[in-house]
Amino acid sequence: MMTRRTPTRIRAMSPRQTLPPDIEEIRDFTWRRQGDRQVDSPADAERFIDEVGFAACLTDSRRPGPSLYVAVCGRRDAVLPRNVQKAPEASRTWLLKDELVRRGRVYYAKFGTRTLFIAPRLVPYFHAVRGVRRADEAARLSDDARALLRVFRREWEISTADLRAEAGITSRGAFTRALDELQSAMLVVPSEVYYEPRFTYIYTLAVGRFPDALRRRVPRDVALREIARAFLSTATLTTRGELARVTGLSRAEAGLGNRALVAEGYAQMLGTGVYRLAAESKAGRRARTGADGVTLP
């Protein structure tokens, strides 16, 4: 028996279900999954991140959302090999990541195990959702994280080895957790990486690199809406739970953001958790013009 397709409504899809071909083709273009649009320089990578709003670093086709690695590969089916150190495309992505960190023109965020490059225009929105303001530090940060933060505010920029020594944290695990906590709170960012004489990161206060963006106050509901807008503008259609998996938002938060887009006519709700860009809206047409002025399909 043949199953009839319904073009106007789409059932909520699991992560492994196939997207409609036209959606995949649009994502091929917007997420640079094409050989003629692949990323091969730091400037290309910055333009790509500006176009999509935010992108993962080393995720492949098995994870949803735009990815710098996939854009470097320039193909939809890119999969990370087991030995990434010897894979040319993975190595190229890693070196581009280091250069983007040095240049400091996009925000390199680490939210738990998830790393994202964030375009400067979206930093205030992610900070409104994930950031910790100074008045809330005592209540929301651990003792070890606050010990590191005191060192940062005294030194401003410091290597990981010196930071650990200055803070007096003897446990490597506790130090790593505290540093991850500060990155998740959007308080510190890496600013440089060295491989000689030994591998080390230099970290700095995030507000030093993005002062205006991190000091801007944004209501939480506005932040959720704009994060959802950034994703939908290049994904064209978002399936159930997809925005949450890409950004680390809860499903409830992602739903609030998407429904706000529906309320303003930017998106259409096609089913439970499934939203599509309203192509006829002026906002949709603006969002589908790339940073280089190219009109997206």
Helix content: 40-55%
The biggest beta sheet is recorded as:
3 strands, antiparallel
Number of domains: 3
Shape: globular
Mean pLDDT: 88
Would you count the extended β strands for me? 9
Oligomer: single chain
DSSP strand content: 5-15%
Q: Could you give the order of the helices and strands?
A: HHEHHEEHHHEHHEEHHHEHHEEH
Can you list the strand order of the major beta sheet?
Answer: 1-3-2
Radius of gyration: 20 Å
Report the structural category: alpha+beta
What is the CA–CA distance across the termini?
A: 34 Å
Short description:
This protein has 297 residues and is an alpha+beta fold. It has helices spanning 21-30, 42-52, 68-73, 88-103, 123-130, 137-140, 143-155, 160-167, 172-184, 206-209, 211-215, 220-235, 242-247, 251-263, 282-287, and strands at residues 54-56, 107-111, 114-118, 157-159, 188-194, 200-205, 237-238, 267-271, 274-277.
Task: Describe this protein's structure.
With 297 residues, the protein is an alpha+beta fold. It folds into three domains: 21-118, no CATH class; 133-215, Orthogonal Bundle (Arc Repressor Mutant, subunit A); 220-287, Arc Repressor Mutant, subunit A (Orthogonal Bundle). Helix content is 47%, strand content 13%. The protein has 15 helices and nine strands. It has helices at 21-30, 42-52, 68-73, 88-103, 123-130, 137-140, 143-155, 160-167, 172-184, 206-209, 211-215, 220-235, 242-247, 251-263, 282-287, and strands spanning 54-56, 107-111, 114-118, 157-159, 188-194, 200-205, 237-238, 267-271, 274-277. The chain has a three-stranded antiparallel beta sheet. A hairpin with a 2-residue loop joins strand 2 (107-111) and strand 3. Helix 5 packs across helix 12, helix 7 (143-155) crosses helix 8 and helix 7 crosses helix 9. The longest helix is centred in the first third of the chain and has 16 residues, at 88-103. It is globular. The protein starts with 20 loop residues before the first helix and ends in a 10-residue tail after the last helix. 38% of the residues are buried. The model is unreliable at 1-15 and 280-297 (pLDDT under 50).
